[in-house]
Amino acid sequence: MRAPVQLPEIPEEEQTPLVKELIGLIQELAERVRSQSEEIERLKDEVSILKGQKKRPRFQPSKMNEQAGKPGKKKRRRGKRAGSKKRHKTKQLQIHHEEVVAPAQPIPEGSRFKGYRDFVVQDLHIDVHNTRYRLQRWKAPDGQILMGQLPGSVQGGHFGPLLSSYVLHQHHHCQVTQPLLLEQLREWGIDISAGQVDALLSRGKDAFHDEKDELLRAGLSSASYITVDDTNARHRGNNGYVTHIGNEAFAWFERTSHKSRINFLQLLRAGHTDYRIDEQALAYMHEQKLPHAMVQRLRDAEQVHFADEQQWRSHLQQLGITAERHQRAATEGALLGSVLEHGVPEDLAIISDDAGQFDVMLHGLCWLHAERLVHKLIPLNDTHRQDLEQVRGRIWDLYADLKTYKIQPSLSAKLELDARFDSIFTTRTTFETLNQTLKRLRNNKSELLLVLERPDVPLHTNGSEGDIRDYVKKRKVSGGTRSELGRRCRDTFASLKKTCRKQGISFWLYLNDRVSGTNAIPPLPDLIRQQASASA
Where are the alpha helices (DSSP H) in 288-410? Predict the structure, then answer.
């Protein structure tokens, strides 16, 4: 913005009527220019919003100016500033090498030794360390050849556990691509090929895959709620989706070729492939408006458990359920029966961003995504803009009070918040698009106010949004996967990495522990169950 006009000081005797009139005109023009500049900036912001971009941040004036020229008016802090609690930064460090340094100048006769002043320097020791195992070979009298065995940590490969852990950590934690890893290792003197780097990243990882698969079973069976999200994920040049399921105890990722409610329920089965008809499954089919006659046929059939999709599809054909919509509703119900049969709590809350594929079981909505529908509206005039700001302010006030309710729930607060919700989302304004959006959100009242019945559930899906962001960064750095093994490894190590972080475990130490075969760190599914038991 243009700097304000600074008029020179004019002596009083020189301020003739004409000069005073000119000064007034200059000041009026300067004010008009300033007003027009603000209008131009506001219009630029509206253009940015229409383009789907963010408007410029509004910077608050520095409060330092308020203290300028006021000696002795220094603001007093209440208590200690944030981060002022000091700790001895090097006291707990392990010292690997100690070196005594004497003064450079000669020590005079009669000087007394006064001890040491310690100065700790932290550094890394990166060096190639090659080991040759000479396996003894003996020939027994009966002709049998006896030979020494490699240590278990070597696992029959030509690269040690520390190098294997480093490659996994760099690729899956630090987003280093395989070509850069290859270049780095060769610069350090490691004789390795591109194929061997790929093998270190993907071959022989069955134990990691098994632990990742068990993560979901442990997380679902011990959770009171989960948050879910999905994002794009390319594989073999084709578009697909990766789904995230998790909460504060675990995170789990799985890439599939499409997204649907059937696909989501298949993931919730946590590796099982069966279909089951029970009362919950039949009740779901009824809610999805599957014709009563078809529901009754499924109820009356002798077979209620099906080992795989082929058996289930054959059963539907035999019962005359052939229409796509009817098969979809029946399949979703049978999958839900399988999910509940395998230990998932019936009252498990699923919090999502209102994507239709996640609307199963006890469904709740993210308030941040709901408010975004209001935030994205484009007002057409000042009246619309005022209505929009007023409604958004009331929504955020309600959100703040819902957070307070989570901490201290009460019947009176529940009734008051319920009434405020109705008051906000039945508001009629001059902005008709806003009215329709509020009406749409009011139709989701039970899902937005799930917290009133279940104070344990979150009001947003920030956990899933944060967890899946690493997957998005990986996709942007490395693109899609090309082999099925590579796709599986990406899902596995993304799940293990995020779960380690939630459990307070160093991912680097975890990789070293598993690759070396030490297994001093307990299985992550056991830690999830222990955490759930401790908080129960």
Answer: 292-300, 309-318, 324-341, 367-375, 382-407
Domain range annotation of the chain: 367-453
What is the Cα–Cα distance from 409 to 403, expressed in whole angstroms?
10
Taking the C-alpha atoms of residue 188 and residue 470, their distance in angstroms, rounded to an integer, is 28
Strand partners, 241: 232, 256
> What is the per-residue pLDDT for 84?
55
Q: Give the model confidence (pLDDT) of 202-236 as tens digits.
A: 999 999 999 999 999 999 999 999 999 999 999 99
- What is the greatest pairwise CA distance in the chain? 128
What is the reported pLDDT for 486?
A: 93
What is the spatial distance between Cα 335 and Cα 5, in angstroms, rounded to a whole number?
72
More confident residue, 31 or 375: 375
- CA trace torsion 344, 345, 347, 348 (10° rounding): -50
pLDDT per residue as tens digits for the range 103-157: 999 999 999 999 999 999 999 888 899 999 999 999 999 999 999 988 877 765 7
For the entire predicted model, the pTM comes to 0.80
Q: Estimate to the nearest angstrom the gap between the alpha carbon of 97 and the chain centroid.
A: 41
Q: CB of 483 within 8 A of CB of 202?
A: yes
CA–CA–CA angle 207, 211, 212 (5° rounding): 115
Three-class SS of residue 241? strand
Residue 61: both structure tokens together: 């004036």
Give DSSP secondary structure letters for 92-156: TPPP--------SSPPPTT--------------------------EEE-TTS-EEE----TTTTT
Judge whether residue 63 has pLDDT over 60: no
Q: How far apart are CA 488 and CA 255, in angstroms?
A: 8
Residue pair 456/224 in contact by the 8 Å Cβ criterion? yes
Report whether pLDDT(85) > 70: no
What pLDDT, on a 0 to 100 scale, did the predictor assign at position 67?
46
Give the three-state DSSP class for 230: strand
Strands 145-147 and 137-139: antiparallel
For residue 72, the SS3 value is coil
Least confident of 34-43, 200-209, 221-230, 365-374: 34-43
Please report, as a single letter, which amino acid is at residue 230. Answer: D
CA distances (Å), 290 to each of 63, 284, 326, in order?
64, 9, 6
Long-range contacts formed by 240-246: CB under 8 A, 24+ apart: 242/468, 242/471, 242/491, 243/267, 244/464, 244/467, 244/468, 244/471, 245/216, 245/219, 245/220, 246/219, 246/463, 246/464, 246/467, 246/498, 246/502
Specify the higher pLDDT residue, 44 or 403. Answer: 403
